[in-house]
What does this fold into?
Amino acid sequence: MAATSTVPIPKIPKRSASFPVTLSIDIGGSGIKAMLLSTRGKPISPRERILTPAVATPLAVLRVLDEMRARLPGFDRVSVGFPGVTKRGITFIAMNLHPKWANFPLQRELEKRWKKPVRVANDASVQGYGAIKGHGVELILTLGTGIGSALFTDGKLCPGLEFGHHPWRRKTYEDYLGKKALAHYGKRLWNKYLQEAIAQTAATFNWDHLYLGGGHTSKINFKLPKNVSIVSNDQGIYGGVALWRE
It folds into this structure.
C-alpha cells in the first residue's frame, strides 16, 4: 500500500491580518498615548504613555512622539488625535498645550520625519470615531484638562466644533467643566454644572446619544440618562483607524 502524502498548509503571516498597521497617537494635556492597531482597529501592541511636556511647544511634543515611534516600530501609517482645532493636518489652536501650535503643519512635519503617511484630527473626533454607533445624531464630550467635543450625524463628522470654548453662563463650558474648574469649584458644584451642560447640549443639538470620555468621568457622581454613556479613554486611540476609511 502506497504511503499517503499530505501537502502542508502554509501558515498565513500574522502581518497579513493586520496590514496596514496604524500607529495611533492621542496627544493630551497631561499625557501622550500610543498603540499599534490592526486594520480592524484592534490593538496589536501594548499601550505606551509618556507625560506631556510641562512646556508643550511643538518641538517638545515632537521629541516625545519620536520616542513613541522608537517604542512602537513596524507601522505603515500614522493617526494623530490633537487637542485643538485642526484643518488639513495643520493645528490652529491648542489652548491646553502652547501658543506656538498656531498654524503648525503637524501632519507634514511627521511625514517628513518618519517617511510614512500621516493623518491628524481633533482628539475628540478620533475618540468619537472609536465610540459612536453611526446612527442618528451622536455627540461626544471629553472631560479632561479642557473640554473636547465632536458631533456626528449617521456616522459623519461635523468638523470644527470647539464646544468647550462656546459662551455658557458667564464664561465658557471649559471654565466650568475643565480641570481648573474641578479644582476651583469642587466635585459637588462640578457635577451640578455637568448636569446642566448635558441638558443644554440636548436642547442645542437634539442628540440621540451622548458619550462622555476623558479622565474626569471618574468624578461623575449622578445617574446618567439612558442615552448618555461613559466611554473608555482608549477609544481616543482605537478611533485612529477611522481616519483612513476615506
User: Anything to note?
Assistant: DSSP finds seven helices and 14 strands in the chain.
